[in-house]
From TrEMBL:
Entry-linked InterPro entries: Chond_GalNAc, CS_glycosyltransferase, Nucleotide-diphossugar_trans, PA14/GLEYA, PA14_dom
Annotated region (Disordered), positions in chain: 161-184
Location(s) in or outside the cell: Golgi apparatus, Golgi stack membrane
This protein's GO CC annotations: Golgi cisterna membrane
Catalytic activity entry: an N-acetyl-beta-D-glucosaminyl derivative + UDP-N-acetyl-alpha-D-galactosamine = an N-acetyl-beta-D-galactosaminyl-(1->4)-N-acetyl-beta-D-glucosaminyl derivative + UDP + H(+)
UniProt xrefs under Pfam families: CHGN
Domain of life of the source: Eukaryota
Keyword Transcription regulation: no
Keywords for the protein's UniProt record, in alphabetical order: Golgi apparatus, Membrane, Signal-anchor, Transferase, Transmembrane, Transmembrane helix
Phylogenetic classification of the source organism: Eukaryota, Metazoa, Chordata, Craniata, Vertebrata
Source organism of this protein record: Astyanax mexicanus (Blind cave fish)
Annotated protein name in UniProt: Beta-1,4-N-acetylgalactosaminyltransferase
Signal peptide: none
Entry GO MF terms: N-acetyl-beta-glucosaminyl-derivative 4-beta-N-acetylgalactosaminyltransferase activity
PROSITE patterns, sorted: PA14 (PS51820)
Amino acid sequence: GSSIAQLRKNLHYPLYPHSRSTVKKLAVAPSWTNYGLRIFGYIHPYTGGEFVFAVASDDNCEFWLSQDDSPHNLKLRAYVGKTGKEWTAPGEYGKFASQISQPVLLEKQKRYFFELIHKQDSHGTDHVEVVVSSYAVSSFVYIPDESTFKMNYVSHIPQTAASNKDASREASGPTPPHGADMLREDPRDTFFQVPLLDKSRLWGVLPECSYKPTYILKGYTLQRYQGLQFVHLLYVYPNDYTRLTHMENENKCFYQEKSEYLERYGFSSYMTLDQPEREDIDTRNGGTETRLCFNDFKHEEYHNSVLQDTEHLDTKKKVTKSHLLNSSPEQRHKGIVAPPIEESNNTWRRVGRLEGKVDEDAAEEEKNLSKFGEEDETVDDWMMYGDLDDDFFTKIGFDAEVNWAQTFQVKPMDFQTMRSDWIDLTCNVSGNLLIDKSEAMFVVQFSMQQIVNVEKRPDVPQGTRYLLELDLLDRAGNRVRLAQYIYLLRKDQKRSRSVYKQKYSPQLLFCNPHNFQWNPTATVHFIIPVKNQARWVQQFIADMEELYKATGDKNFNIIVTDFSSTDMDVQQALEDSQLPRYQYLRLEGNFQRSAGLQAGIDLIENKHSIVFLCDLHIHFPLGFIDSVRKHCVEGRMTFAPIVMRLNCGATPQEPDGYWEVNGFGLMGIYKSDLDSIGGMNTKDFTDRWGGEDWELLDRILEAGLEVERMYLKNFFHYYHSKRGMWNRRIIRNT
């Protein structure tokens, strides 16, 4: 972005920038893109009087000045723009009225705190400068050299009204709500806080049955990365609005049509235009004109929609044969008909298909067109206006006719039923598949307050597994939470032989799947490998502290494997935190994700606890730990939630981005299961990363474990620059 408001939305603003330094004067041009600057210090006037300040920048900037030396008394004095569209050339101080301040009274031998904020996008010549009406500004007093400070040492940095995240809101009013449906409140978001129903209360409610899905791959050997083909998505009820409807202008893959098709034809195939009740006859200049509308909207019929000029035009036009035959179907669909030309007595008529039938004129038309040989470069005396675009009509003095009274017919469409539970790597906005309400009500055979969540994993030959999350009342009237896996077992039984053939009737049986229940008290270990990522480590610790504060859940542990970070004392930061449990391991050498994860795995002693292979740049929903536990079953199932990647400038409150459908690096799995398949592959993935998640997925599936895959609401991956990350180095300018 290019506005100060967008800078203030940055997760690390204002205390944790990429770098900190000092400048000699207020005229800065780093010659870089997509960054923000926060510059602050003191002004020392060597004489008293009124002074006027002016600013210039590309893109936006704000200059704040205090009435004294206190950062708490700042006032906005001058600025370039608020929307991000405004900019100036270097030294251009008169482009906007807001660039020049009102006179400010300064006293000699006093110092005045100032703050300058600048935002630059990817275009233009980046610069920001401040000038004063008189040479009354002496040196700036700066904080001591910060080169010896750790990045997470921020106690000396002032927090002011200028840098406050709410400053833009106060200046321009409240921000309008973001249009994402996924931001709406959902009972799922806080249902983890409701006490669980005692499992002993469920004994005998349903019989126990064998659980052996047919899609289990145990005993099969997969080629590397082939496991992606055997992972299926979950179905949910009610709608969790993980479909990114606000991003479908960029990707319409939800509709199961190729983007090229939609761009050319749109959704016209789902519509049937109503046929006009009569023909409109135009007899101007002795001519006749007949306009007919299509009743059948099939694209293969477009090519029959043409216009024919039966006589020569006064001014002959030459149109290439390829232009006549290859014009776009959407132009023919519009049914554009040019009015008769007054200078001639031409008779115009539309020929085409009506109700799926080809009239004789249309057939003759196509026959005549087919006679043109490849050597015919031009076609004289033909004007097929139905095949030309609006620009052509504009050039010859006509506007396309619009039939504002055109109506159409359409059938209700349930596009959800057209979707498959196979993972489509090209479709990253669709969200979870939906269970029909009637099916959910059939499965839920309890007296309840409400259905909070139902998840389905179908297995057509064998049966269907459901996770039921129901809001119940116990006998004392207390609210309790049921979160239980049940199985709808399918047993095919032969009916009596009929006259024609033998028929089969499935018998459905609700039951408890044997040895397939989740542990609500299992400890979840988050393993994070890091190297010189101080601002993100600090943010991760803060987020996990917030998670602990909101849930009170002490059964999780943070394991940080640190490849000798120099930008912060990671161990000290963990000791200073409010986390209930943590472990720290210092490693040497270059960053290696697989090695860092495995080192963390080796620290876990309880094999019946859950390992969550994590990333540093993640925003977790409050119920995340509960979600990991529910979707991990020891010896049976692992959990690979789909994270939403936020675009540059997006936030959890303004979630523009896409689902990372092909990434399996965020994985929950029991320690015993991970050990049984050999842990992380530290042999093939040493000095590189990327692909280690797919390789691990292959081995998980080969071991006969299920992989639960679903889009998880409010589970975000922050956009971040790769500058300075992993083992990247800075090229010094010579």
